[in-house]
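Dear H.,

Thanks for agreeing to be a second pair of eyes. The structure we're designing against is below in token form, covering all 294 positions.
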């Protein structure tokens, strides 16, 4: 609560100096609240169905809230459903072209097998009272996987038990290139799982609430691009099964192409929506299929 008031005050000061016509955010309560205080319209995007606290502090103060069509919560008359994920704003083929030079940072060549692991700090408000893989699970996972492929770890928290030697060391802007070329991605947090799927990399998520999120259910049930696995022991079994499959990347790229055909380019949509707001809000509300042109 105190952080919210502090951030609102900072953003209010900036907005008075900048005098924006419109506030746009990824479900920022600060942007929504300050837009309301200054009498300016606010557009928010969210894809986290379980972020009840953030949504309760954002939705009442915003004018339009854009969610994937697979979002499981009804946010009322302000909600716009789009056939896409926020990650397709920057990873759609129209905008992202993979760079092979990223592999040089890993001392690998094209075709080399490697697994990327991602460990979350679980410090977001929607992760309260949840946890990911235990230290024992992480150690076991790395020990078994490195017998099948090179292993790299991206972690928000200090790595335990000598795992720091697996910590990935690359310029941050190359992370999506590394994710694109990976043979397998495993995480106990969400966004990068969606990114992996969009890039055609097999992905496993081990999170106690992942099946409450529309994005992950869509990616698993409708496209077969990810696996929701809650039992840490089963994570290892599924990982070994996937890493040992021949030409699995070819199969996943085909699945990815199917997904891209069925989703819109979020950047193109948002550009149109923002430039034509508030008329664009009425257009999409009256004719949701208008988004198909993007």
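And this is the sequence the design step returned. I haven't edited it by hand at all.
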């Amino acid at each position: 609560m105190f952080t919210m008031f502090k951030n609102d005050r900072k953003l209010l000061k900036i907005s008075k100096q900048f005098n924006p016509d419109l506030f746009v955010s990824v479900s920022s309560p600060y942007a929504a609240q300050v837009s309301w205080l200054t009498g300016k319209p606010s557009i928010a995007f969210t894809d986290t169905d379980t972020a009840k606290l953030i949504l309760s502090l954002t939705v009442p103060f915003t004018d339009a809230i854009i969610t994937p069509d697979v979002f499981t919560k009804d946010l009322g008359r302000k909600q716009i459903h789009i056939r896409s994920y926020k990650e397709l704003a920057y990873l759609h083929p129209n905008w992202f072209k993979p760079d092979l030079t990223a592999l040089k940072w890993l001392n690998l060549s094209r075709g080399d097998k490697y697994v990327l692991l991602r460990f979350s700090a679980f410090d977001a408000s929607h992760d309260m009272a949840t946890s990911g893989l235990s230290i024992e699970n992480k150690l076991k996972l790395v020990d078994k996987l490195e017998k099948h492929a090179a292993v790299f770890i991206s972690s928000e928290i200090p790595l335990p038990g000598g795992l720091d030697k697996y910590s990935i060391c690359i310029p941050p802007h190359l992370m999506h290139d590394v994710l694109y070329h990976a043979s397998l991605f495993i995480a106990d947090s969400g966004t990068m799982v969606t990114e992996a799927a969009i890039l055609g990399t097999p992905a496993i998520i081990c999170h106690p609430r992942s099946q409450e999120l529309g994005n992950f259910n869509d990616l698993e049930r409708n496209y077969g691009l990810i696996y929701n696995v809650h039992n840490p022991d089963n994570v290892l079994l599924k990982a070994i099964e996937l890493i040992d499959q021949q030409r699995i990347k070819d199969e996943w790229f085909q699945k990815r192409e199917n997904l891209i055909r069925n989703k819109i380019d979020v950047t193109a949509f948002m550009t149109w929506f923002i430039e034509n707001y508030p008329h664009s809000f009425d257009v999409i509300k009256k004719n949701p299929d208008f988004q198909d042109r993007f």
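Two observations from my side: Residues 100-262 form a domain with the Rossmann fold fold (CATH 3.40.50.2000). The beta strands are 23-25, 42-45, 64-68, 79-82, 114-119, 150-155, 184-187, 203-205, 226-228.

Warmly,
E.
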